[in-house]
TrEMBL record:
PANTHER family: GRPE PROTEIN, GRPE PROTEIN HOMOLOG, MITOCHONDRIAL. The lineage of its organism: Bacteria, Pseudomonadati, Bacteroidota, Cytophagia, Cytophagales. Residues 12-27 have a biased composition (Polar residues). The keyword Ubl conjugation does not apply. Its main location: cytoplasm. It holds the Pfam family GrpE. It comes from Shivajiella indica. This is Protein GrpE. SUPFAM superfamilies: Coiled-coil domain of nucleotide exchange factor GrpE, Head domain of nucleotide exchange factor GrpE. Gene3D superfamilies: 3.90.20.20, Head domain of nucleotide exchange factor GrpE.
Length: 194
């Protein structure tokens, strides 16, 4: 193409753009005039106003209904969670009693005369543990030899590991940990190997 042909093409393109812009401007002016005339006509405006008002009220109703359903679902979930963990404080206060029972059993194992007392204490202890299990409290069991988990355990001390494979693992459990549902209500106090 020559320079003259390129210039003519550019001119024709710019003219087409100007024509398109003029058409767009005239179309918007026609639309604006149409909306002005419809809002001014009295017989259509009453019906349109009522229809618009009905549509707005329907929209508001649907939004309020949706908001209420979301609120109801959220409060229902919160209530279920509250009911599930409402007794957490009571359970935490009972756990030291279980610890005392366990210590008493260890101490009474050495005595020969306390066999009947020990048996009675074990019955009471097992009954208490069963009640707590029915309420959702579970003891963290079989921790010895497993890797230390900071989410469920509290390391109170570290000692040299007796074997190489026990490094970083639980060597002894000083105080059992407990969960209520999925939530840890007391961390297990453990001794880890270094």
């Amino acid at each position: 193409m020559t320079d003259k042909e390129i210039t003519k093409d550019e001119q024709s393109t710019s003219q087409e753009q100007e024509v398109n812009q003029e058409e767009i401007m005239s179309n918007t002016k026609v639309e604006e005039s149409k909306t002005e005339t419809t809002s001014e006509s009295p017989e259509l405006s009453k019906e349109e106003k009522l229809s618009q008002e009905v549509d707005e009220l329907k929209d508001k109703y649907l939004r309020l209904y949706s908001e209420f359903e979301n609120y109801r679902r959220r409060t229902s979930k919160e209530r279920i969670e509250l009911i599930r963990t409402a007794s957490e404080e009571l359970m935490k206060e009972i756990l030291p009693v279980i610890d005392d029972f366990e210590r008493a059993f260890k101490a009474s194992e050495k005595e020969e005369d306390g066999a009947k007392v020990r048996e009675g204490n074990q019955l009471v202890f097992h009954k208490l543990v069963k009640v707590l299990e029915n309420k959702g409290v579970k003891v963290m069991e079989n921790l010895i030899g497993k890797p230390f988990d900071a989410d469920t355990q509290e390391a109170i001390t570290q000692i040299p590991a007796p074997t190489e494979d026990l490094k970083g693992k639980v060597i002894d459990v000083v105080e059992n940990g407990y969960t209520l549902g999925d939530k840890v209500i007391r961390f297990a106090k453990v001794v880890t190997g270094a």
